Amino acid sequence: MNQKKLCNTEASIGQIAKEVGFLNQFNFTRSFKNSLELSPENYRKIYKNK
């Protein structure tokens, strides 16, 4: 779900973090990276428009 938001919107990572229930971008990034072994920013760069 978070992955789709990263690729299908121009919303900031901080904004997405809040939308999906994280208190801040740091916690979201840490959780995302632990799950997918990529930061949200890198994931967006690689998979956007694919």
How would you describe this protein?
This protein is mainly α and 50 residues long. It has four helices and no strands. Helix 2 (13-19) crosses helix 3. The model has no long low-confidence stretch (mean pLDDT 92).
Content-based structural category: mainly alpha
Mean pLDDT: 92
Helix content: 55-70%
Shape: globular
- Content of β-strand: under 5%
Total DSSP E strands = 0
Task: Please give a handful of descriptors for the protein shown.
mainly alpha; 50 residues; 4 helices; globular
What order do the helices and strands come in, and which of them pair?
Elements (H helix, E strand, L loop, with lengths): L1 H7 L4 H7 L5 H12 L3 H8 L3
Summarize the structure.
By secondary structure, the protein is mainly α. The chain is built from four helices and no strands.
